[in-house]
Amino acid sequence: MTERVLVVEDNDLNRKLFCDLLRANGFAVEPVADGVDFVERAAAFDPQLVVMDIQLPNVSGISLIEALRADARLCHVPVLAVTAYAGKGDEERIRAAGAEGYLSKPVSIHPFMSAVNALLDRRAAA
């Protein structure tokens, strides 16, 4: 079965890059440009992983992670936060909201794919 990754990223170039990388590595991908109807879209896609930008228009990625954690259908899905927030305490705050992985932008290909695979491997082992 092909693993499914939901990519929440408002920047068109970043979203395309993440989706293209994931597809090239055999993943089914659902791109999302904003947080509107995020929980319902995530539930309909049933992802094994969510790649979440934190700085989104109209809603914080942290709020979306918290909504994911509060939904019984999705609370088990690991989240990789990918963000320009790289200040002191940001990673801790993002992880406290429920993100299992954290990468600061700009993101290189190898660390991104390593983080994706590590979270999926950890989920499969659980």
Automatic annotation (TrEMBL):
Stored PANTHER family: RESPONSE REGULATORY DOMAIN-CONTAINING PROTEIN, STRESS RESPONSE REGULATOR PROTEIN 1
- Domain (Response regulatory) ranges: 4-120
Which biological process annotations from GO are given for this protein?
Answer: phosphorelay signal transduction system
Please give the SMART domains that the UniProt record associates with this protein.
REC
Lyase recorded as keyword:
no
Name assigned to this protein:
Response regulator
- The protein's superkingdom reads Bacteria
Pfam families the UniProt entry points to: Response_reg (PF00072)
Modification sites for 4-aspartylphosphate? D53
Give the UniProt keywords, A-Z.
Answer: Phosphoprotein
Phosphoprotein: is it a keyword of this entry? Answer: yes
